[in-house]
Amino acid sequence: MGVESRRVLVVDDSATMRRMVKLTLSGLANAEFVDAGNGLEAIEQLSLTKFDLVILDLNMPDMHGLEVVKFLRKHAAFKKIPIIVLTTRSDDAGRESVLAAGASLYMNKPFEPAKLMEHARHFLDVQ
Amino acid sequence: MTNDPGESGLHFEQFLDDFYVECDEHLSVARRAVLALEASLQQEVIDRGLLDELFRSFHSIKGLSAMVGLQVAEQLAHGLESYLGLLRKAQTKLTSEGLEALVAGVIAIEQVVAAKRDGAPKPDVTELTKRLEALLPSTAVNEAVPKSSAQGAPSGSTSTDVAAKVAMKLVDGGRAWSVHFAPSPAGSELGINVNSVRAELLQLGTLVHSEPRIEAGGRVAFLFLLITPGQDPPQFTMKEGLTVTPYEPASPVVESDAAPSATTDSESGAARGGGSTHLVPANLVRVDLGRLDELMRMVGELVLSRARLQDALQRLHDIIPSAERRTLEEVNLVIERQLRDLREGVMRIRMVPVHEVFARMQFVIRDLVREQGKRAALHLSGEETQIDKFIVERMMDPLLHLIRNAVSHGLESPEERIAAGKSPEARIDLRAATIGDTIVVEVEDDGRGIDAAKVLARAEAMGMAPRSTNDPAALLDILCAPGFSTREEADRSSGRGVGMDVVRRAVEELGGALIVHTKLGFGTRFVIHLPLTLAITDALIVSVHGERYAVPQVAVREVIQIESTSITTIENNELLTHHGRALPLLRLDRFFGARNRQAIAAHHVLVVGDGSDALGLVVERILGLREVVVRPLTDRLVQVPGISGATELGDGQVVLILDVADLKRNSRNRKLASTGERYAGGRHDAANQVKQTGAKP
Fold this sequence. Notes:
heterodimer; A: 127 residues; five-stranded parallel beta sheet; B: alpha+beta; Four Helix Bundle (Hemerythrin (Met), subunit A); 5 domains; six-stranded mixed beta sheet; 43% helix
């Protein structure tokens, strides 16, 4: 048994966007990626297994990413998990509300791959 | 995959194909939502679900476009999204200008994306951009992220919201239920998860509300509020982790005022005419059509192998003891049936409902009608009809063309209609149905009809030598002649380089047929017959002078047996009286060049086509009905009139597949005497091509 793998949950309703994120982060050592296509699915995944990082889109059907952040931060088990909110600019929910709800970082799409990589590394290494 | 995508400036161009697919999906959702919005133009309250859905579609297109570096689409989507943002916050009212801009926006994004895909020049969108800007107050244009950030974000539904919503839905009857779902690793392994549960709930009734909850012990669960049409509790196929209780306004579902919640309003789903695209359950997979083609090809190989097995069995008939032979034959039959099931299974995977295409047509009609100052209502039927994805893709342009023609040429102006004693609002029907092994798609308008005399005059003026146009098939031949148009100048909407010739070619390349029915003053109906699928088909194997041919069973209306004496010859054309009508005959051996041989004595006639379009194919023997794997003749040099492709039979021999539509056309043109020899060489070239390249075992 080598190093325990680090699990990253990629939440976005766009499958293409999820693949872009995973490709960007494919250089992370020992990283394992899990997809979720909506907020409820993300919460279910997080409740079933342990994750080390969540990359979260905001504008999704059924449950807005902001509500996902609020829910996770209310729950003791998810309080510490780093959440990178990765969203397309919109007047829907801004940086402040997302950070106030407890997200670890707010990044805009289109994203700079190197930046996302850097932040993801940072949050995974801190743990 | 461990390639690091580099430092910066990466535009994810390798995802362009996925981008096109996803854009297409979002545009489909957007089209339906815009059309549904149109209905609520006059109303005080706009369905919030529709606005949210439309907002999300544009938002997703914006994000994806930005990622692949398609700024024009990004900016358009941004403008549309901003306008919807205002509508959502009720800061502005939906106006007809606004709606027009939404329609134009969807069309423009579609064009921009298509231009990128086809490597065509970018369409000019400056005018539209200005229109969009004019809809927005100056502050909203540049301020993508306003300081007051939470105003547009979804707020958690309060208990009163939910209770009110339930009360509203219950007006129409039915009963409300609280459905509690506790996910577990065991259930998850069985595929029971929040997505599959929700997908099932959507089947059972209207999902009013859904939210995650934290239970005692820190466990996560989900609560759904479902309204079923009947009074009985909903029955689930999977019960793992599910509890259903009758909903009471005071039940725990709604006491969590501050709890974050998600609202599902499937009412907008109903407004879109079914088909919930915004929820992509985990049990759906997107598959590259190429892989399905590959799978179908493999099924085709299996069909051929089985045919070889059957052939071998027949040859061994006298050698194998009868008991063993019977066992072998039974197994062979079982394999045949299983193969058929397998083929149908693969075919079903490739099928998509036609409603997506229809929604797009609806959009086009709406736009054209407005542009031309006409009035028309579109009636759709058979939207749930399933068609092969490949065929759908190929039919898109021809259908668009027929629709444009119907609006531009078919429909009169409201004034003309009133003068003709018709309702000022025209009617266009778009229908789809599965009939046996064929899909029938119809485009019908109740406009002015096609003036056969005018068409004839125009054809003569163009130097064509048309026959009488009393016959719809002959009329269609003229309409479908390359370059033919009754309009002096192609107008903007219809004259986009695709003529009726392209429409017919597209239909026939798919092995289908195009038919027109028209009545001057009353309207025109185009009927398209298409095969269910392309790769494997049932065909009658016939022979003439030892040459075998395959005739797609779909094309054959009737098989009759005749004597030579019942054939009458008029001016070199052979006719047969059948069902009280003169049925023109075509001798396959002569058509394909064997003119010097003796005419065959005993005949079977395969009747293809309907009414005046009917034709009898004279053959010597009918060898049976076989499942054949179609291999199209792709090499243009060996494309032969009357032949659409080739197939291999169990004995390894190559047999050509007749192109029935082409044969009918050739017969109408009555030039058989001179063309017979010309085709003779081609027939063998075609067979050789297939032997060498096409039919690898």
